[in-house]
Design a protein that fits this description.
It contains 8 helices and 7 strands, in the order H-H-H-E-E-E-E-H-E-H-E-H-E-H-H. The protein has 182 residues and is an alpha+beta fold. It binds guanosine-5'-triphosphate and zinc ion. Guanosine-5'-triphosphate binds next to helix 5 and helix 6.
């Protein structure tokens, strides 16, 4: 990657040998490694078996999980918040793991819709939830600093599965608690 960024600097009309850019190919390569580390993570390692017996079947919500990802069309950041709610069947997951799930999928090239769906799938498939709701609100830099140049638009995506899809009251409770008028 270092060589690629060296060449990129030349292609954009810069001098990769000038003082200020000397270490830039290395830094950018390190930065991209971090921003795409989700490709090298495994969901079972991320969850680390942090399951606990569910004592009841009430809704669990973690809202405002900040999120930084890269759109796969322009490789520019999209930045926002993720809200997750689920109803456990027989086990709950350690609360920090919800944020770790978000990061694992966000640190890849993404479209917001797929990111939303991948997070929801983990709760259904790995945690065995009765239902899950995931809402992401994000701003895409590819729409802000280039292209249509809209500074205030937000993309909102939601994925409702299980009882969040079949029971209107459950879905409404979730949306009310996260405070999003979706
Ligand atoms: N659905 C979806 N679209 C996205 C996401 N991130 C970026 N895009 C869009 O991907 C599209 C790519 O469109 P193209 O016409 O191929 O590329 P472009 O000419 O650079 O498009 P503009 O951004 O309109 O200038 C654009 O409309 C982007 O806004 C995302 O997460 N979800
Ligand atoms: Zn984009």
């Amino acid at each position: 990657m270092k060589n690629l960024f060296y060449n990129l600097l030349e292609e954009i009309g810069e001098d990769p040998e000038r003082e200020g850019l000397k270490d830039t190919p290395h830094r950018v390569a390190e930065s991209y490694k971090f921003l795409t580390r989700g490709y090298r993570q495994n969901i079972d390692e991320v969850l680390n078996n942090a399951y606990f017996e569910a004592e009841d079947n009430h809704m669990v919500i973690v809202k405002d999980i900040e999120l930084y990802s890269l759109c796969e069309h322009h490789m520019l950041p999209f930045i926002g918040k993720c809200h997750i709610g689920y109803i456990p069947t027989d086990k709950v997951i350690g609360v920090s793991k919800l944020a770790r799930i978000v990061d694992m999928f966000a640190r890849r090239l993404q479209i917001q819709e797929r990111l939303t769906n991948q997070i929801a799938n983990v709760l259904m498939e790995k945690v065995g939830a009765q239902g899950v709701g995931v809402v992401i609100e994000a701003q895409h830099l590819c729409m802000m600093m280039r292209g249509v140049e809209k500074q205030n638009s937000k993309m909102i995506t939601s994925d409702m599965q299980g009882v969040f899809r079949t029971q209107m009251a459950t879905r409404t409770e979730f949306l009310q608690l996260i405070g999003t008028a979706v």
